[in-house]
Amino acid sequence: MRLGTRVTVVTTVLVAAVLAATGFAALQVRRADLEADLSREAREIAAALRAGLEPLEAEGATETLEWRAYSARENNELFQLEILRVGDEKRTDDPAWLLLMQGAEIEDAPVGRIFDSAKAKGARSFAMAVPLYDAAGLELPRRHPARKAVAIMGMRRDASFIGAELTATARRIFPLYVAVVLLVAGVVSFALRRTAVLPLRRLLEGIDAVGEGDLSRVILVQRDDEIGTIAGRFNAMTGSLRDAREDGRRGAEARLALEARLRQSEKLATIGQMAAEIAHEVGTPLNVIGGRARTISKIIARQSNPQRDDGSGELVPNPSAEIVKNAGIIGGEVERITKIIRQVLDFSRQRGPTITRVRVPSIAAEAVGFVAEATRRQGITVEIAPAPAELPDIPGDPDQIQQVCLNLLMNAIHAMPTGGTLRLGVERVVRRKGGLDLAAPAEYVTLEISDSGAGIPEAHRDRIFEPFFTTRDEGQGTGLGLAVSNGIVKDHDGWIEVDSGEGRGAVFRVYLPTGNALAPSAFDTGRGLRPVRPQPDVALAAADPMGKD
After folding, report:
1. Which helix or strand (DSSP H or E) is residue 100 part of?
2. Which residues lie below 8 Å from residue 229, measured CB to CB, with a gap of 6+?
3. Cα–Cα distance between 59 and 62 in angstroms, integer?
């Protein structure tokens, strides 16, 4: 049985019981009222009977009483009369009449009550004993010892009309009783359905939905009671489950991404080992080729003159000179290839940084030379601003600083696939490091590389320094360039700032400390140092190391 049905049945039964008890009490009150009315009517008739018969003289009392009893029978009066006692002669041996006679003599007044009939089961009758006095007795006060009734007359009336009246009343109120019970059952059922069953059903539907995996189910809290509290707790539970599932999903995605990155790292490590082996194997024949080219150049230079006579008296270039020239070109290209191979080998070896004094403009110019072919091929114009004359060197690893320059240059080149302008400049500035507003200003060398490409979308700016994050097509980038560069710069106690907007290119500023002590008066534009404050729209790599390349 459902909860609503059970509560409705229990409530209806309780209400029916209360109504039944109330109805029974009402019928008992009605019975008492009818009996009281009967007793009052009997006393009035007894008073009228006494008024008509008293004073009753002893002589002729029997004939008078018999005539009065006969008259009541003939007129079919409600109360029938019978003689109970005349003088000392008792005319009845009925215990009920004897009891009433005794009571009337004691009370010195009419005494009546209702008796159950011994002849018919369930039949009842009202009986009253009425004492009658002679003239002498009437003159004495009530309950005087000398006052004695001459005769006692009995009055009897069938009291079954009381039961009939109660039955009729019960029949009249029974339909109303049934209607009230049904109405109460309907009201209770409706109220329970609106206030408990429907909210609980919605709660059960929500629980079933949660069990099936739908955590978006929300139950409206429309009431400030226990059911409303349960609904609020359910919403809080589903919210917690949603958060937990979202955390689990993010954790799973992070694990999958980490696994992918680890596989990519292993792949890159394998490629690096293969590249190192290839570079080592190619290096030996290149050394032979370079040595042979230099040997040919030296031999021909010793054996030949730069010019010769062609028979007409004019000097023309000696073919040996062309050979020397070509041999020199071969040697130079071999040296270039050898240098590239050496860089690959150096990059593949794990070694600690070599701290020395680094000339940033020279490193930057050399890096521009490395990418000259790429810029020429894509039609990119390279503009290099002249460095300040008193630009100090910085403490650091030249190879790592060069790697930062190359990564930023390649990032700018990839941002301009159809050509554009690449600008590079080196400056000397004095400023405070981001996040250290209370620290004293320090001197920095700033490497600024900008491009005229499409810029960095706002949605990607917070992730450009994140490892393995790239906006290039698949196979065109590893997403490690800016992440590695950011790590190198941070190892040098510097940081990278990015100023970019969609459609207006990107500017990368690398701040590298000079390590020189700075006098308080040096923070002055009059000495050629440019104080710089962090711009509000600039992303600080030191504060949020995530990446783009």
Report:
1. helix 95-107
2. none
3. 8
- Averaged pLDDT score across all residues of the chain: 79
Q: What is the bridge-based pairing of β-strands 111-116 and 89-90?
A: unpaired
Q: CA Rg, the chain, in Å?
A: 62
Residue type, position 52, single letter? G
Residues 440, 428: Cα–Cα separation, whole Å:
17
Contacts of 462 (CB under 8 A, 6+ apart): 539, 544, 546
- Calculate the dihedral angle through the C-alpha atoms of 237, 240, 244, 250, rounding to the nearest 10 degrees: 140
Asked if 427 contacts 525 with a C-beta cutoff of 8 angstroms, the reply is no
Residues facing 132 on adjacent strands: 151
Distance CA 411, CA 392 (A): 27
The tokens for 284 are 């030996």
Question: What CA–CA distance (Å, rounded) separates 471 from 549?
Answer: 7
CA distance 335 to 327: 12
Exposure of 450 by Cβ count < 10 A (0-12 exposed, 13-18 middle, 19+ buried)? buried
450-495: per-residue pLDDT in tens? 998 888 877 777 777 776 666 665 545 556 678 778 888 888 889 9
> Which residue reads 């400390």 in tokens?
513
Closest CA to 127 of 149, 150, 95: 95
Residue type, position 515, single letter: G
Q: From CA 546, how far away is CA 504, in angstroms rounded?
A: 21
For residues 42 and 153, the answer to whether their CB atoms sit within 8 Å is no
Distances (CA, A) of 247 to 52, 210, 388: 108, 17, 52
483-530 confidence digits (pLDDT tens):
778 888 888 889 998 887 777 788 999 999 988 876 555 554 434 444
Q: Tell whether omega for the bond before 319 is within 30 degrees of 0, i.e. cis.
A: no
Element (H, E) at 84: strand 80-86
529, 520 Cβ separation under 8 angstroms: no
Neighbours of 387 (CB within 10 A): 18
d(CA 114, CA 160): 10
Residue 167 CA to residue 171 CA, distance in Å, equals 6
